[in-house]
Write a structure and sequence with these properties.
This protein is an alpha+beta fold. 26% of the residues lie in helices and 26% in strands.
Length: 180
């Protein structure tokens, strides 16, 4: 067999291997498709009227919807920053593949008893624990289930309270007067 024929067979073999890996990735045996995974809460962003966040060693945050806009009511008061509120509202519709019964887990070891952070969306309470050592996903307790979810919300919810206030919009007339 000459060199050209060997290279041809090698390329065909590699192409077959790549095709098999692509098929395996698309089919993901043993995993449910995301369309069949229910959202974490039976709540939509549009139905959320109140948000509260209890954080260890930090001020408590509280927000409420007034006339279609979000307002921070604790620790300070003012119009809430929509860029930071939007991801919190989307939490209700998040889907996480892995879930475990609370009775089967050691909650203190996962830092879920007491939790690192508590989030209330209306009256629904969510406890945030540690991250899993294998993939960095965060343990979240909702009712009798602990979910492993991407760690998107904890860094946001533990950020400085002042960042949740919307920046004041200054009038162009006032700005022109101040420059003179």
């Amino acid at each position: 067999m000459n060199t050209l024929a060997r290279r041809c067979w090698l390329n065909v073999s590699l192409l077959g291997l790549v095709g098999g890996l692509v098929a395996l990735a698309l089919l993901e045996p043993g995993r449910e498709q995301s369309a069949t995974i229910p959202p974490l809460l039976d709540l939509t962003a549009e139905r959320i009227e109140r948000i509260a966040v209890e954080r260890l060693g930090q001020e408590r945050l509280a927000f409420e919807r007034r006339g279609g806009q979000w307002w921070m009511i604790a620790p300070e008061q003012g119009l809430a920053n929509p860029v930071l509120i939007h991801p919190i509202l989307r939490f209700a519709e998040a889907r996480c593949v892995l879930g475990y019964a609370v009775a089967d887990l050691d909650l203190p070891q996962l830092r879920l008893d007491p939790p690192r952070l508590r989030l209330w969306l209306n009256q629904r309470e969510i406890h945030f624990g540690d991250t899993a050592p294998t993939d960095g996903q965060r343990y979240l307790r909702i009712g009798g289930t602990v979910h492993l979810c991407p760690d998107r919300w904890y860094p946001l919810l533990t950020s400085a309270a002042a960042g949740f206030l919307a920046a004041p919009i200054e009038s162009p007339v006032l700005n022109a007067t101040r420059r003179d």
